[in-house]
Amino acid sequence: MVCYSHAVRALKRLKAEESLAIIQKQYQIIQRLEDHKEIQKLWEIPNHLTAEEQHEISEISDVQYWDNQDHIIEKTFCIYVDLIEKIGGNMDNKSTLNKIAWSFSSESYSDAEAFNQKVAEYQKDIYNTADRWNPNEIVLDAPEVQIQYEAWITKSSDLLENDQLISDHEDIFDEEPEDDGYQVEIIAKFKADNGKNFTALEFLMKTHNQQVNKELGDHVFFEGIDDHPTIVEGVPTYYIACGS
Length: 244
Known about the structure:
This protein is an alpha+beta fold and about 240 residues long.
């Protein structure tokens, strides 16, 4: 009961209404066993459920819980970040790219405004506001930059024209692939559309599109960029770290 109460409070705090409804439905099924004298341990509960009840919990509700669109992981991370910032951080001094949430996917974008709307909508889903997203902020004051990121590929043609493997992985195709292919680190170079600098929108869209044809596993959540890039052959290089 204590664990259930904590879960309910957490899901309400996250405004994860779909997840909350599923948890509450599962609890309603086992609630009749709350004072059952033969149950001493939590793992003994399934022994006292009917086949239909077990099916509802494990085969229906549990699947719905993990497939729902409440973005629990992202929202939890964002609340944690907010708490840290309230303790000692200052959001005003941070780049837009380090304020927002974003999830990389296999959907490619060619229309900047469509991508802008998608990012703004995502902020509303996570933060209930799009105020953190400033697409026109100049975030990188350089005519060209590089990103370094990790992905799974199955063949050399998965690399885009502006991709190159880091030196440690240049001979990786001489090896046998793992079940999911080759796990590699890639450096990609971008040129600013205006030849001077990058807005948050341009940088995030190009970074997103660079990865759409590759497998990222469950590490798809954008975690911002470094305040100070690594200079590689004279070009500012940012490591794109992704969370799961």
